[in-house]
């Protein structure tokens, strides 16, 4: 099932890549998703 989904994905992913203005925003948002929980846990542990 997943292999079939991945085979169908490239068309949507390519359209997203073409409409996406800058991949830097994607990396920043991905980094924030990982950094924010770490900061929250750090602040909670320090308190």
Account of the protein in words:
This protein has a domain at 21-47. The termini are far apart. It has 47 residues and is an all-alpha fold. The model has no long low-confidence stretch (mean pLDDT 73). The chain has helices at residues 2-19, 23-46. The longest helix is centred in the C-terminal third of the chain and has 24 residues, at 23-46. It has two helices and no strands. Helix content is 89%, strand content 0%. Residues 1-21 are annotated as: Disordered. Keywords: Membrane, Transmembrane, Transmembrane helix.
**C-alpha termini separation:** 46 Å
The helix tally amounts to: 2
- The percent range for helix content is over 70%
Major sheet characteristics: none
**Average predicted confidence as pLDDT:** 73
Low-confidence stretches: none
What pattern of helices and strands is seen along the backbone? HH
Number of strands: 0
Radius of gyration based on Cα positions: 17 Å
Which descriptor suits the 3D outline?
A: rod-shaped
Structural class: mainly alpha
Strand content: under 5%
